[in-house]
Amino acid sequence: MSPETLILLLNLRLHVILTLDFYNQINMLYGTVTEFCTPTECPVMNAGIGQEFPKTFKSTIQSIVRRLFRVYDHLYNRHFAEIYTLGIKAHLNTSYRHFFFFIDKFDLIKKDELIPLEELNASIISGKLNSQQQQQQQPK
Fold it and tell me: Domain locations in the chain?
């Protein structure tokens, strides 16, 4: 295993805790709109030390974060009005921003899979999505 691969895998292992934190955050955020997210409204959801890393370690993490991304995408594109009304848009924006930096840093999701939120991602990268704009952001 190359040193670069080992460093990447060690970093991912350290950030698995972040992945669990993302799961907890997205679960909490999604829980706020479950009454609006019914099968009728949303029929399809559009994310050890001394041991060798499993060969599927990175692909497993990628699969998890892809599924989490789909939940963020669903919240932004189907339930942002409810998120806004509930007064938790800043929480959603902060959670997604943290998640986006994580997946971007470790190149965990292919760029073409991020297209549904590309405008938001561009705002995050450019630094335009800050706390002041979070306060002014209106639902679509």
Answer: 3-136
Half-sphere exposure for 50 (CA within 13 Å, toward CB): 0
pLDDT at 134 over 50: no
Chain Cα centroid distance, residue 34? 18
pLDDT at residue 130, as a whole number: 62
Q: Is 91 annotated as a binding residue?
A: no
pTM of the predicted model as reported, rounded to 2 decimal places? 0.65
User: What is the DSSP-derived secondary structure letter of residue 51?
Assistant: S
Alpha-carbon distance of 96 to 76, in angstroms, equals 10
Contact 25, 123 (CB under 8 A): no
pLDDT reading at 131 higher than 50: no
Q: Does domain 3-136 have CATH number 3.40.50.740?
A: no
Q: How far from chain centre, in Å, is Cα 139? A: 19
Q: Is 15 annotated as contributing to ligand binding?
A: no
